[in-house]
Write a structure and sequence with these properties.
The protein has 405 residues and is α/β, with parallel strands linked by helices. It folds into two domains: 2-79 and 367-404, Urease, subunit C, domain 1, CATH 2.30.40.10; 81-358, Metal-dependent hydrolases (TIM Barrel). 35% of the residues lie in helices and 20% in strands. It contains 13 helices and 16 strands. It has helices at 2-16, 105-121, 135-144, 166-179, 202-214, 226-234, 248-257, 268-274, 276-279, 287-308, 331-338, 344-350, 353-358, and strands at 26-35, 41-50, 53-59, 70-71, 76-79, 81-83, 124-129, 151-154, 158-159, 183-187, 218-223, 239-242, 260-262, 376-379, 393-398, 401-404. Strands 1, 2, 3, 4, 5, 14, 15 and 16 form an eight-stranded mixed β-sheet that branches. Strands 9-10-11-12-13 form a five-stranded parallel β-sheet. Helix 6 (226-234) links the parallel strand 11 and strand 12 (239-242).
């Protein structure tokens, strides 16, 4: 029944898709306040869009005869937000339980498409999914315009301590590139539910990150313990995920080496605990694992405060969104401000231009400026004075097409 509802909902969306305003006509979007994603605030601004691109941004009273296609009034406009770590395929099954084992290919792609659509409507126009094989089909379908959803980048598969010898790992990196992966996802440590200790050897990490760099591939590393973070950074890995047990030493090391840090403090653990009954009893989702997650809330608060206080540390916005969390991605931004004391503008930059830079898309997305993709979001409220405004998305445009208004 749930799958049938998904099919009906997606069919309705696809029927509506051709009528979405975009194509080649000039579109003008006016708002009282525009945050460009790079730290600037523009007042009384009009964003001019042609096709999928922004052609100019005008400030001041619009010229006579140049009325806005979309008058957003007091909404705060910013670039489409970016989540650099969201598991777009994770979902609950028809019984409301975490679907640890995949269903049929049709069911899996429909659940993924549902999650993608919900994420788009929450104002996230790009996500990085680390990752599963059918991400490729969903990524390509969205890129063709068949499915409405955020731009997707995927690791397809992951590399961990069981991936083989250093030489075998290097070959797997090359194969992932051939298969169309956008990023290499690495597990350098155990889950927080299992204590977060380092699992891959230094030699394995040197192999995977060294080969990835040689192939021009980005890397993102699941690492909780200081030892696993340090080993990953020293191996040449480019982005660290989670870092629950990160110390001042390894935070400074990341800053000094120019490694991106994606702490996940506002969505993933909260979602697991909120949906405990839907996960409990599956794998390491047990009483001991949930006890670790309860403890992790406090550890995360301490860690994010240290991270925010670390000079020049490049923090990007990722949620580790899993089943139950899709569409709540902006809660991560809120909690970085609330728990970590991050300045609202810095938190917004982490979800826009800084995230785009980490994806090597800084000339394409994450900033509102001429030549960039027309990924544009309107918020009900001013996030610089009330950060919860990022959760109140009233307008969404991706690539020049309007999906919510």
């Amino acid at each position: 029944m749930r799958v049938m509802k998904l099919k009906v909902a997606l069919f309705a969306v696809l029927l509506a898709a051709p009528s979405l305003l975009a194509q080649n006509q000039t579109v003008r979007i006016h708002a009282a306040t525009v945050l460009d994603g790079a730290g600037k605030t523009l007042r009384n601004a009009t964003i001019v869009v042609q096709g999928s691109k922004i052609t100019s941004i005008e400030t001041g009273t619009p010229a006579r005869g140049s009325s806005a296609t979309y008058e957003l009034g007091q909404l705060t406009v910013l670039p489409g937000m970016i989540d650099v770590h969201a598991h777009v395929g994770w979902h609950f099954d028809k019984d409301g339980r975490y679907a640890a084992r995949p269903g049929s290919p049709a069911q899996e792609i429909l659940y993924s498409a549902e999650n993608a659509y919900v994420t788009l409507l929450a104002g996230f126009t790009t996500v990085q999914s680390p990752g599963q094989p059918n991400d490729v089909e969903l990524r390509d379908a969205i890129a063709r315009g068949v499915f409405p959803g955020p731009r997707i980048l995927t690791s397809i598969r992951q590399i961990n301590e069981r991936s083989g010898t250093p030489d075998e790992i290097r070959q797997k990196v090359r194969q992932l590139k051939t298969d169309g992966a956008d990023v290499i996802k690495i597990f350098a440590s155990a889950s927080i539910r299992d204590g977060g200790t380092q699992t891959m050897t230094d030699e394995q990490l040197n192999a995977v990150c060294g080969e990835s760099n040689a192939q021009g591939m980005r890397t993102m590393v699941h690492a909780h313990s200081p030892e696993s973070i340090k080993a990953s950074v020293n191996a040449g890995c480019l982005q660290i995920e989670h870092g629950v047990f990160a110390t001042d030493e390894v935070l400074k090391l990341m800053a000094d080496k120019g490694v991106y840090f994606d702490p996940n403090v506002g969505v993933v653990l909260q979602n697991y605990l909120k949906n405990r009954d839907k996960y409990n009893g599956i794998g390491n989702y047990n009483d001991e694992g949930f006890a670790f997650m309860e403890k992790g809330l406090g550890l995360n608060k301490t860690m994010i405060q240290k991270a925010v206080a670390t000079p020049k540390l490049m923090m990007v916005l990722g949620t580790d969104a899993v089943a139950g969390a899709h569409g709540h991605n902006a809660d991560e931004i809120v909690e970085r401000v609330r728990q970590g004391g991050q300045k609202p503008m810095d938190a917004i930059i982490s979800a826009t231009s800084m995230a785009a830079k980490s994806l090597r898309l800084s000339g394409t997305i994450g900033t509102l400026a001429a030549g960039y993709e027309a990924d544009i979001v309107g918020l009900d409220g001013d996030p610089l004075t009330d950060i919860t405004a990022v959760t109140r998305v009233a307008f969404v445009m991706r690539g020049g097409k309007v999906y919510k208004r």
